[in-house]
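Quarterly update from the structural biology core.
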Amino acid sequence: MAAQTSPGLTASPTASPSPSPSPSPSLNREQEERRELLSQAKVTWEKAAETAVGEVSGSKLVALELGRGRDGATASPDTSPSPGAPDTSPSPGTPRWEARVAAADGTLHRVDIDAVNGEVLRSEAEADQEADDKREVADRLNQAEQTPEQAVKTATDKVKGTVTGLELEENDNQELVWSVDVVNTDDWNKTTVDVDAVNGEIVREQADRD
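Predicted structure, tokenized:
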């Protein structure tokens, strides 16, 4: 006799597949996004920074952040991508490093890098930069005695994890700092460590558990 099948397996509304929102129910949305980003990203912050600086002769890193592309565009029509940039657009949501580097005169350039394969997706000067803004960027870079690498080492010696962002900026006390985001891959919480860009001391440490 043939085995009897249950008629409700496909017809019952209660048998619809689970949406499986998260493999780790204990993680909140932000933690899960960090986990997914870091599991997909193959390009380290160091490699992304090296690539970005290499796109603009004589430039220095100002900011770098790991995130997702909101669309598949590599650049706007009036931009001039790097000769090494791919002809095809990445899929929407592809992990990417968004970098900002500055030329010697303070002119900022945006460089987006595919965080999976390391290809340059966008390389262009930021539009409508005022002379005062350029001067401010150049002054900050001249004042910063700590390199991004030194700041990251200081931050990760204090807080163990993977770097997902850094930026040269002034804090609320008008101190010039490298603000370094470090994600702990045990609990996927992010901690921002502000490192004095002149003397290398940690001036703030703030955990983001949201």
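The radius of gyration is 22 Å.
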